[in-house]
């Protein structure tokens, strides 16, 4: 299919993809596929004001009715799955299966949020006073700004939007400047759901497209109490303090430097499969991608040999081809950064396998590169940095304590895992003295989390939680209520105040 046919199939009209100021290129071949219209920063106050008035109406709509909108969104996404998945492939360069997987993730979170819309509940708490009852009520917060990244151009928005909407919060979405087309297509799907829903307030879900000035308007506005931002630690270090300084609530999903410990008892064949998917899947451009392999010295050489063999067989090329497993990096800048990191690793004593630019058998114009395995003598500064590319650093260890210390000794704290058949090792890894990450797995790679769990991590990953479990509480305000149904007015803590 040509790029234009993919855009048309996803419902994008000529008016939406031409005549604008934001140029969009496909990572597949670098082709210029659209000129998208940008939001004028001067319009941001009016956009935010629309969101505030939508909030006043939406917060009083019963949550299960709000869930109906998200149910319709899930239905529309099911109908549009193939076309939107193909657009993700065109615009983000993901292989077909991963493009479809991303839309499936959107459908899954819609299902989750529909169920949640009938399960938004608080506690009843025993009061110390006779004839009193305490309880907790969860109320909508207000407009939720969503700043998303190129690598999950639509799923991360849906995690936020599906929860925010059932929680009673309008959404203003600023997608990555690299992926506005998937955002426009998703918004059209959302508009179809809104039309079927019927009486949603105007401005309930808005899309704003553009550069830093657009994001800055959301970050700075007191009328946007929740600001969910996914991206680099550098971006989060700017956004987080600004939102906090105006007493807003930042939800941050920033860098990861995810590790796998492979213990002597591990099922190595299974570990190899998990390593390859999580290190090279999405061309190493997930925040959960495997970046560090901490292998026991007794199996390290064997594991590296198995991995080198597997790496050599991976089909690299056009992500639309059914057999391709590794598509392009998002752009040439990403490839340059990967090559520069490999140079630094070499200078620190690393032995690099792979990591060469691929020009044959791939579409010309895209940034195709063979994934790299890099054996490191120690965990150097370069290893401790997140590089958004398929580089897997290999380190060795003797004792589990040493392995856990290495796993934790990076600034980031998103995802982690251990491959072991030893119960003591597995449980130690999951214990308070184990992994310090928001996600810790056993005999599963660090990437590809299901939407049912809370997603996010500690330290420079930003501390936010999105998606499943009780992450919805981040989109609501908690109110503690004390109700006195007695004819007395006793004070807490036995305080006497008689007059
Ligand atoms: C991201 O890379 O920003 O767990 C999100 C995963 C996906 C989400 C990744 N479900 O890898």
Automatic annotation (TrEMBL):
Q: What is its EC number?
A: 1.2.1.3
Superkingdom classification of source? Bacteria
GO terms of molecular function: aldehyde dehydrogenase (NAD+) activity
Q: Where is the signal peptide?
A: none
List the catalytic residues. 253
Q: What is this protein called?
A: aldehyde dehydrogenase (NAD(+))
Entry's transmembrane regions:
none
């Amino acid at each position: 299919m040509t790029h234009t046919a993919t855009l048309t199939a996803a419902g994008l009209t000529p008016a939406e993809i031409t005549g604008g100021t934001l140029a969009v290129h496909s990572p597949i071949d670098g082709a210029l596929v659209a000129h998208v219209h940008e939001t004028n920063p001067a319009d941001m106050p009016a956009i935010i004001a629309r969101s505030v008035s939508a909030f006043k109406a939406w917060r009083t709509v019963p949550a299960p009715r709000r869930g109906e909108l998200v149910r319709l969104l899930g239905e529309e996404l099911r109908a549009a799955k193939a076309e939107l998945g193909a657009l993700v492939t065109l615009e983000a360069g993901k292989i077909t299966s991963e493009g479809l997987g991303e839309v499936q993730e959107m459908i899954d979170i819609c299902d989750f949020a529909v169920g949640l819309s009938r399960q938004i509940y608080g506690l009843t708490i025993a009061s110390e006073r006779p004839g009193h009852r305490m309880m907790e009520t969860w109320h909508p917060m207000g407009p939720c700004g969503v700043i998303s990244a190129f690598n999950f151009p639509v799923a991360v928005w849906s995690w936020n939007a599906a929860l925010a909407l059932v929680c009673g919060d309008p959404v203003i979405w600023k997608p990555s400047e690299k992926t506005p087309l998937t955002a426009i297509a998703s918004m059209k799907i959302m508009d179809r759901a809104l039309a079927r829903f019927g009486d949603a307030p105007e401005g309930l879900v808005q899309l704003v497209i553009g550069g830093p000035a657009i994001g800055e308007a959301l970050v700075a506005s007191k009328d946007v109490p929740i600001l969910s931002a996914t991206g680099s630690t550098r971006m989060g270090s700017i956004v987080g303090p600004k939102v906090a300084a105006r007493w807003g609530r930042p939800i941050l999903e920033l860098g990861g430097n995810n590790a796998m410990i492979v213990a002597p008892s591990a099922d190595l064949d299974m570990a190899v499969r998990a390593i390859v998917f999580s290190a090279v899947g999405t061309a190493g451009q997930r925040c959960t991608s495997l970046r560090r392999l901490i292998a026991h010295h007794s199996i390290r050489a064997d594991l590296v040999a198995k991995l080198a063999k597997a790496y050599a067989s991976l089909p690299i090329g056009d992500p639309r081809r059914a057999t391709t497993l590794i598509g392009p990096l998002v752009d040439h800048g990403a490839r340059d950064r990967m090559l520069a990191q490999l140079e630094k690793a070499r200078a620190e004593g690393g032995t690099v396998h792979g990591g060469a630019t691929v020009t044959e058998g791939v579409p010309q114009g895209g940034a195709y590169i063979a994934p790299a395995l890099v054996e490191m003598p120690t965990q150097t500064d370069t290893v401790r940095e997140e590089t958004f590319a398929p580089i897997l650093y290999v380190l060795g260890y003797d004792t589990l304590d040493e392995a856990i210390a290495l796993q934790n000794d990076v600034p980031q704290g998103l995802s982690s895992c251990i491959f072991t058949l030893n119960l003591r090792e597995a449980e130690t890894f999951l214990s308070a003295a184990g992994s310090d990450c928001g996600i810790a797995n056993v005999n599963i790679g660090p990437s590809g989390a299901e939407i049912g769990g809370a997603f996010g991590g500690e330290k420079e990953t930003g501390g936010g939680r999105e998606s499943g479990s009780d992450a919805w509480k981040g989109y609501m305000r908690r109110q503690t209520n004390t109700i006195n149904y007695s004819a007395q007015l006793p004070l807490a803590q036995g305080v006497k105040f008689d007059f």
